[in-house]
Amino acid sequence: MKISIQFCEPCGYRPRAEAVGKRLRELTGADIELVHGHGGVFEVTLDGALKFSKKKTGRFPEDAEIDALAKG
Length: 72
Hints:
Elements: E1 3-8, H1 14-28, E2 32-37, E3 42-46, E4 49-53, H2 54-57, H3 63-70
Parallel strand pairs: 1-2
Antiparallel strand pairs: 1-3, 3-4
Helix pairs in contact: 1-3
């Protein structure tokens, strides 16, 4: 499983991306790729498929959503 989190560096989303990445790594054992972005982006992809987008939802993922992402 390949997990990637793209986050807006200028917006200060790095700590949240690191926290989500840590939780996903603990739940899946997968390597997490953090990708710098801009424009308010915070997106989580699994094996190349977009699973969560802050731009679409208008918010960050909640713990239950992160747990569900870990299950694929």
